[in-house]
Amino acid sequence: MMQRNKMYIFSKRFVDISVSMFALIILAPLFLIITLFYTFGENKGPIFYRQKRIGEQGKPFYIFKFRSMVVGAEQKLYDNPALYAKFVANGYKLPTAEDPRITKFGAFIRRTSIDELPQFLNILIGDMTVIGPRPVVETELKEYETPERVAKFLSVRPGAMGLWQGSGRSDIQYPKRADIELEYVDHPNLWFDFIVLFKNFGAVFTARGAE
């Protein structure tokens, strides 16, 4: 497994802290506006959705997102075997149009990737980085097939924007998704991080693979 030099690790963390602090300050008015949508209608309830993900070296953490589903959506998924089977078969996602748990407002913030903005909190805390493989739930690790591939995937800090996301997100399923995420691990340098960043901007602006 390729070693990452200390300068790269330091530079990456410096960028993470700088970018997340700046983003949270600039986005504060937007966060306030979005909060209002959680005070009425089908979207009424908690603002944030917290889900347990697996981070660097297998350390679990809770990822933050603006809630795009009805309250109790995760249990609703587990209580419906057919829905859960489709969820797993579709790469641990459901198409927005076919997911009964997603609210109308939730569909909008997913399509525009606004639901991902609270992850700047995860980046500031240090659970995540700006650029890195997307964090997964524990059951999803089996998609990496071997202990060596799982260890390689977990050898880096998960990111808010990854190579898989920039390559098409939901348009790309496992096992190809795993190969793409591991390709990022093989390129530990800031130049490749910038390439991944621009790929993600392109995916967001075109809504490619968004659900």
Structural description of this entry:
By secondary structure, the chain is mainly alpha-helical. The chain has ten helices and four strands. It has helices spanning 6-26, 28-36, 73-78, 81-89, 104-111, 119-125, 147-153, 163-167, 176-185, 190-206; strands at residues 48-54, 60-66, 129-131, 159-161. The protein has a two-stranded antiparallel ribbon with strand order 1-2. It has a two-stranded parallel sheet with strand order 3-4. α1 (6-26) crosses α6 (119-125). The longest helix is centred in the first third of the chain and has 21 residues, at 6-26. It starts with 5 loop residues before the first helix and ends in a 5-residue tail after the last helix.
Keywords:
211 residues, mainly alpha, two-stranded parallel sheet, 10 helices, 4 strands, 9% strand, globular
Residue windows where pLDDT falls under 50 for at least 5 positions: none
Which assembly state applies to the chains in this document? single chain
Structural class label:
mainly alpha
How many beta strands in the DSSP annotation? 4
List the secondary-structure elements in sequence, H or E: HHEEHHHHEHEHHH
Rg, please? 17 Å
Briefly say what this structure is.
The chain has 211 residues and is mainly α.
Topology, please?
Blueprint: H1 6-26, H2 28-36, E1 48-54, E2 60-66, H3 73-78, H4 81-89, H5 104-111, H6 119-125, E3 129-131, H7 147-153, E4 159-161, H8 163-167, H9 176-185, H10 190-206
Parallel strand pairs: 3-4
Antiparallel strand pairs: 1-2
